[in-house]
């Protein structure tokens, strides 16, 4: 039902291309405050405007950088709402779930289970190699990070989920009229969006297995659960707990986290471990809790195009 809510005769694929451009443009507009701040700082310090993103992200104090960068996702989310409502004439709920309303218990459960796993995993690594981590905790900067992070990081992760597991997944469903193509395409695009991350440069392209695998996992739980709530909770926990718990000099953002990872990054089995072991375990837990059945149909089945009257009914309820 989730994908079918966006599949209707008037939802041509070219509309999703236009909508994507609009959302990207909104995101660029949201980057103006950060760019203006960097320009002003460069002018004040009599230095050239940084052409390297990694350098630009280290110009300001970490909390200020996080705040300025996260603003772009607020604009992008507004762009998603505008496109869904006025270009596709759908409700935001119709690209969120097939349920009558958002199930916040699902969001909370997914958030908590991945938060607990992330914290336990970190401390396992910490006690194995404590020399690779240093205490980075400073009370006031950390409390500011908590305030900024708990407000803006869920907006960032939700924006990404609405783009990939909601908007684009329904868009590709309109194009292909099946479920496997939207699942695979959104997973590949989601993973490819991370290719410029400094982690890729440090660890090599093997880490793309993790990024694409994570996209695939999020797509699977969205299709099996007929909604994005589990993906929303997982993604928010992954980024928020990561920002609060540990930072490093080679990650995308440096934060006032509790610990700092001083190790030299390398990609080994730990990169593939979540994809081949942890994610299947989570799929098993979710499937038992929410009674998932008919996996083949939900992940690879065909989609019947709804007539206009049925589509309007789905979007109004």
Automatic annotation (TrEMBL):
Keywords: Membrane, Transmembrane, Transmembrane helix. GO terms for molecular function: endopeptidase activity. Residues 142-241 form the CAAX prenyl protease 2/Lysostaphin resistance protein A-like domain. GO terms for biological process: CAAX-box protein maturation. The chain crosses the membrane at residues 16-40, 64-87, 107-127, 139-159, 180-197, 203-223, 230-247, 267-286. It comes from the Bacteria. Pfam families: Rce1-like. This is Abortive phage infection protein.
């Amino acid at each position: 039902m989730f994908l079918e809510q966006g599949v209707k005769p008037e939802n041509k694929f070219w509309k999703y291309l236009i909508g994507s451009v609009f959302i990207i443009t909104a995101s660029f507009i949201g980057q103006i405050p950060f760019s203006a701040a960097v320009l002003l700082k460069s002018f004040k310090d009599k230095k050239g405007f940084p052409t390297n993103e990694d350098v630009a992200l280290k110009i300001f104090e970490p909390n200020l950088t996080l705040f300025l960068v996260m603003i772009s996702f607020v604009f992008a989310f507004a762009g998603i709402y505008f496109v869904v409502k006025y270009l596709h004439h759908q409700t935001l709920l119709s690209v969120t779930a097939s349920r009558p309303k958002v199930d916040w218990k699902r969001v909370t459960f997914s958030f908590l289970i991945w938060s607990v796993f992330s914290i336990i995993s970190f401390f396992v690594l910490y006690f194995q190699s404590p020399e690779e981590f240093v205490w980075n905790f400073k009370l006031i900067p950390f409390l500011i990070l908590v305030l900024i992070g708990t407000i803006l990081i869920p907006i960032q992760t939700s924006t990404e989920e609405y783009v990939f597991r909601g908007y684009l997944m329904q868009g590709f469903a309109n194009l292909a009229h099946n479920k496997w193509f939207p699942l695979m395409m959104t997973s590949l695009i989601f993973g490819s969006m991370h290719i410029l991350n400094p982690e890729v440069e440090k660890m090599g392209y093997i880490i793309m297995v993790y990024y694409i695998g994570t996209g695939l996992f999020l797509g699977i739980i969205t299709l099996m659960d007929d909604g994005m709530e589990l993906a929303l909770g997982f993604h928010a926990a992954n980024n928020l707990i990561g920002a609060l718990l540990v930072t490093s000099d080679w990650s995308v953002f440096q934060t006032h986290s509790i610990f700092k990872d001083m190790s030299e990054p390398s990609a080994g089995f730990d990169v593939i471990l979540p994809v081949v072991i942890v994610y299947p375990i989570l799929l098993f837990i979710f499937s038992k809790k929410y009674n998932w059945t008919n996996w083949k149909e939900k992940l690879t089945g065909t989609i019947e195009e709804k007539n206009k009257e049925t589509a309007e009914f789905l979007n109004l309820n």
